[in-house]
Amino acid sequence: MTTTAPAGKPVGKVPADEMERLRRRYGRRHVAARCGVYGAAVTAALLCALPFLWSVISAFKQNQDLYNPESNPFFFNMPATPDHVTFLFTDTPFLTFVVNTLIVGAAVVAITLALALPAAYSLARLDRPWGTPMGIAIFMVYLVPPSLLFLSLTRVVVALHLENTLWSMIVVYPTITVPVSVWLLIGFLKAVPKDVEEQAMVDGYSRLGAFLRAVMPLVFPGIVAVVVFSFTLTSSEFVYALAFVSSSPEMVISTGVPTQLIRGDVFFWQSLQASAVITAVPIAFLFNLFLDRFVTGFTMGAVKT
User: Fold this and answer.
1) What is the C-alpha separation between 297 and 189, in angstroms, rounded?
2) Homologous superfamily of 84-304 in CATH?
3) Where does the record place the ABC transmembrane type-1 domain (predicted)?
4) Which of 140, 254, 287, 289 would you call most buried, defined as having the most Cβ atoms within 10 angstroms of its Cβ?
5) What is the pLDDT of residue 304?
6) Any idea where the domains of the chain sit in the sequence?
7) Helix 220-236 crosses helix 269-289 at what angle (to 10 degrees)?
8) Residue 81, H or E segment
9) Distance between CA atoms of residues 92 and 17, nearest Å
10) Residue 133 in contact with residue 247, Cβ under 8 Å?
11) Any idea of the CA torsion for 273, 275, 277, 278, to the nearest 10 degrees?
12) Per-block mean pLDDT, blocks of 10 residues, the chain (305 long)
């Protein structure tokens, strides 16, 4: 290899040992850069996982260990005990809360899809001047705080004789999930060319058949995003669940756990942490199982709206 002087004249070949030194230096820089990236990623993951790890450790701590200010909160300074987790399942109706949450979540997801898919399809496909303003108006409903609506919705629930039942939440929660789901699906449906369903209709399908057989598979990531979003929102909602249901057999996790584990000024911290961990693990598994489709659904909907 030769080098060139500023005037364009060659000054000779670079020695082999110099080339080897340069190659090793660039190799060390590359390795250092990759180590820095992976180190930053691992540090960020540990910081994000720290609250979860602290909850797991706290759930199995003895009272003397948890309430001792000299004890390290991230280690077992005394032997671990499963008594507080056992208390959660034997002395509180925690399993009833879990079942109620699953029932409400599944029903709300089904109602949300049944209402949001046709509404989003009509707004995305029908070329009408009122389509965009109506889509914006639907999304604005989601931005109204629940604290401003629960009084009027309570009157509706009482008029329908649904107070203190799971049906009260099943009826009311779609008012939260449907607007944002419609907005999300509108953006995703706009990303699907009209030629897809037109070709299906040429092949003999009706508009409904073309939508179910040709469009639905293409918008499946958006549907997954709606399912995960709706279920997560309903399982964590607190204001409506507290206002509409007051008896323990009908409560969900968001209201039942605090009611049973916070008694006056006594907090069952270990059992509270155990309930948080047990509730978070299935949701985290669901997110990771459909993570690619979930992210695709949200990003496509955000780009195309």
Assistant:
1) 11
2) MetI-like (1.10.3720.10)
3) 98-290
4) 254
5) 44
6) 2-81, 84-304
7) 170
8) none
9) 74
10) no
11) 160
12) 49 67 76 84 85 88 85 82 90 90 93 90 76 73 76 86 89 88 84 80 81 82 84 86 85 88 84 88 76 58 43
